[in-house]
Fold these 3 entries.
Entry 1:
Amino acid sequence: MKVKHVKLFLVSVSLFFGALFLASCTPSQAQASKPGALLWGENCVRCHNAPSPSAFSDSQWEVVGKHMRIRASLTADEVDKIVEFLKMAN
Ligand code: HEC
């Protein structure tokens, strides 16, 4: 291969992986469309047993949501869905 061709090859390879990297940063559709119950089951068991929806009242869940959003580093949207689910199921 000529030097010029090697350079061209390297540029296209880095563009390809650059694009892959960028694509991996945007939240996937699957994550965004997960229902609250699923997010609760996946996230709230990471550090302790997932508390039962009936363990707290609606207003208590609001507070727990704010607190655990920081602990679990969830997005506002994810926590909203989880709290929505817990308030619906308690
Ligand atoms: C990164 C770890 C972590 C994750 C993930 C996590 N928690 Fe917690 N949770 C804690 C810790 C640590 C405590 C106790 C200390 C405190 O209050 O910060 C706690 C305490 C609690 C309590 C209080 C328990 C009691 O009986 O007083 C509730 C309720 C709770 N978590 C709910 C949740 C919910 C709902 C989720 C999912 C959105 C969640 N947690 C995700 C770490 C976590």
Entry 2:
Amino acid sequence: MSKFLEVSLAVALAVSATASTVSAGPLGLGRPALPEEIAAWDVKIMPDGRGLPEGRGDVETGDEVFAENCAVCHGDFAEGVGNWPKLAGGWGTLDHDDPVKTVGSYWPYLSTVWDYVHRSMPFGNAQSLTPDEVYAIVAYILYSNNLVEDDFELSHENFLEVEMPNAGGFVVDDRPATEYAIWRGEPCMENCKDKVEITMRARVLDVTPDEAGAAMEQAPATEPAPEQKAEAPAAVTVAAADPELIAAGEKVFRKCSACHQVGDGARNRTGPVLNGVMGHPAGGVDGFKYSGALQAMAEDGLVWTEDTLSAFLENPRGFMKGTKMSFAGLKSAEERAAIAAYLASYRD
Ligand code: HEC
Ligand code: HEC
């Protein structure tokens, strides 16, 4: 074990020893924190007033302390400077698109103001204020929010009498009890469906990006609007995601299915599986024995695009001398476009 690891392990054990109520432990390091040590560190103030120290401060004093310690960032009237937080104003904006949340408009508990100011302000010099100064500042922030008069004095005695305007604006989140059950059923973990049927393909819905061409990605999923149709330059490109053309291609595929299969569970037959063939290099199907002619063209970089496929299918042996695909060819350009769209709808 390295020195470093040994040391950090010792530290980890020491930490866990102090944190737990069991003292010392095998290493004899650390001890539980004493209640007074925790109390010295714990500065939290609770909504019911627990934790508040004795003390008092009035608005006038608060005005002075605030001007000295806070106004540079929060403004003379707690209205905020630049992007520093506003501590006053924003009343009645909570239902706006862009609500202004301040102590006056938003905070439900005055104890949070006392706690926050005492704990973390002034920014960069936290916990430098006396309890009386904090009471005075909190009184001044209330005054800036029109919640008290200018002769108001805040103390640990009247602290709970101050009503915060948005105290009733918070509700207990009871959705775990009231709603979750509605949205949650017993999850089915096995044999959930008798039969799984593929009703649509991502490629047809046009949600799968196609690395082969940006034009295809942009093709509309449904029938293009008439004006778009008129503009569309390459019918075949747009057609890639056209369900009608794909349906037509399915019919044309009957001429191929003696030798080729597509879809789930497709296997190599006389010809290779054609899933994912579009946009991919020729000769890529594992376990299929291609002719030397096809392998040679594949090595030369032949990729199956609408153009190359169309040329191949129009006249297989003319396009690829020596191919073992003994197929007469598809003379109709429409059929070739349809079969390209159909094959494109079967990814790997
Ligand atoms: C140097 C600038 C600076 C000074 C000085 C300063 N603050 Fe702040 N104050 C901030 C910043 C920044 C935040 C926001 C901190 C955050 O969101 O974590 C903040 C947040 C606050 C908030 C909470 C605002 C909210 O709605 O979330 C209060 C209240 C507050 N300050 C009070 C004071 C008081 C009182 C003083 C003087 C004792 C003071 N600040 C001095 C910069 C300052
Ligand atoms: C009589 C069987 C047969 C028919 C019918 C047939 N093919 Fe083929 N096809 C093959 C064979 C065999 C190969 C392998 C060619 C080679 O290795 O030279 C092949 C190869 C291909 C390839 C290249 C695949 C790859 O992995 O590079 C495509 C694409 C193709 N066929 C599409 C079609 C289409 C579309 C049809 C129908 C319009 C069709 N084929 C009809 C037998 C057939």
Entry 3:
Amino acid sequence: MKPADLDDLDRPWRTWASLIIGGMLAFSIVMGFVVIPVVQGYGAGIDPFTAICRAVGLVPGSPSTRQPTSAAKAEPTTQVAWSTQLLRTLSRPTDMGAVVAEGCVACHGQRGIASDPQNPNLAGQSAVAIYKQLHDYKTGSRANDIMTPIAQTLEENQIRAVSVHFAAANRRSLDPTTAEVVDEDIVRLVERGDPARALPACNSCHGFSAGGPIETPTLSHQNREYLARQLRAFRDSSRRNDIYTRMRSVSAKLTDREINRLAEFYATTLQY
Ligand code: HEC
Ligand code: HEC
């Protein structure tokens, strides 16, 4: 063949090859930078413009975008730390105690026995338990419209003093003639719990010298309405200052009837 013929043959090949390569390039660009990002972005809720910018590399993609931050604070169950020094002061009466208690008598009673059954009695409650609750109200671990602002006005040494003051007062005495007839199943819950529901006995922690956690409050001189309200508050987690969710897990397994009957039991039975 003559060279001129070869030239004639070469030219269309080059044209076709260039067209194919150019076409593949254009196709890849459109697919890679437009179609795929827009389609995938649509599924991920990203608008087409951002999707294209991300694919081209003008806008950072999902791994390098800033993670959403939240201003919500996780409140600890309690900020109380039991030190030997703290426990020692909680067993020593001071003159300050009676002075601070002046601000409490309107609701908790002259001697720590409240006339309104919605308010808890403080007389004879353990100083450690009173201290923990006041500390928790002050720091926000336990919230109450009335007690939170009151506790916030108290200094650490006033909290200690008033805890010792009320702990030393005599408990509410019970009139045996008004004692409730107690159900067998409630006594069983108090003394033995319910293994079928993995419910521990209340008295394994709350009874006298039961060996429960140090902050366990005494229940047996308490007002029925107050006790029932606290059990419900633990059950719906509106009260969550119990360390290791001890009371939240117990109360979650109690029925309404059991809560009412247990509150009645502890409010009217002093032997525990
Ligand atoms: C205006 C009424 C009022 C006054 C004044 C008041 N309290 Fe209270 N207190 C309450 C009520 C109501 C509750 C129950 C709150 C709840 O349900 O969390 C409570 C709860 C408490 C508890 C928790 C008891 C428990 O068994 O967990 C302690 C401790 C306490 N108060 C101590 C005090 C001390 C100390 C003072 C005085 C410095 C005081 N309160 C003043 C109404 C009052
Ligand atoms: C594993 C130990 C444990 C068991 C079991 C237990 N409790 Fe408690 N309970 C506690 C502790 C600890 C607190 C104090 C929580 C805190 O730090 O505020 C508490 C608090 C309470 C309160 C609130 C008292 C107050 O003055 O505010 C009530 C009411 C109560 N318990 C009832 C019960 C009943 C009823 C049962 C049995 C069905 C029971 N508890 C079983 C450990 C226990």
